[in-house]
Design a protein that fits this description.
Oligomer: single chain
Order of helices and strands: EHEHEEEHEEEH
Largest sheet: 5 strands, mixed
Structural class: alpha/beta
Helix content: 25-40%
Distance between the termini: 46 Å
Length: 153
């Protein structure tokens, strides 16, 4: 079987998992391995990061083909052209439902529109939202509880 593509996760795979650093880059060894692989197959990246937090990595890797699955799968982009070939926003109804729920549960969260991460009150209502996330540390039990409650709404 001949492989055509290699999909790589970003945080914890091509980058050590530290934080969503805006300046962290793959090591020289990882960069060389990715560039060598890109001569044989399309190298694609998959990440929860939005483009603005991935751009410096793409510039560093100089990939000439492949896709980037970004924003937790809400967008798919052709790497060389930066052309978005897929985008799925969250409906306004779901944004309101989830936001109201998280506020009631006292969970600090962000809305991501693909351009920036912002607190709910900072996003203009005309923008489409691609994902809602929290960086709040919580126990696995608390996370499971929130998922169960939200799933029943």
């Amino acid at each position: 079987m001949k492989y055509k593509a290699l999909f790589l996760d970003v945080d914890g795979t091509i980058l050590p998992y530290r934080s969503y650093s805006t300046n962290q880059l793959p090591s020289d060894k990882v960069t060389r391995a990715i560039q060598d692989a890109s001569k044989k197959v399309h190298v694609c990246l998959a990440t929860g990061r939005p483009l603005f937090m991935l751009e410096h990595i793409l510039e560093h890797l100089h990939l000439k083909s492949g896709l980037a699955v970004i924003n937790d799968g809400a967008q798919v982009m052709e790497i060389p052209s930066r052309n978005m070939i897929y985008k799925k926003s969250i409906s306004k109804h779901d944004i309101k439902t989830i936001s109201d729920f998280l506020i009631k549960e006292k969970v600090f969260f962000y809305l991501n529109d693909g351009i920036s991460d912002a607190k709910p009150e900072k996003i203009p209502p005309i923008r489409s939202i691609l994902n809602i996330f929290t960086m709040e540390k919580m126990s696995e039990n608390r996370a499971d509880e929130l998922v169960d409650k939200l799933s029943s709404i």
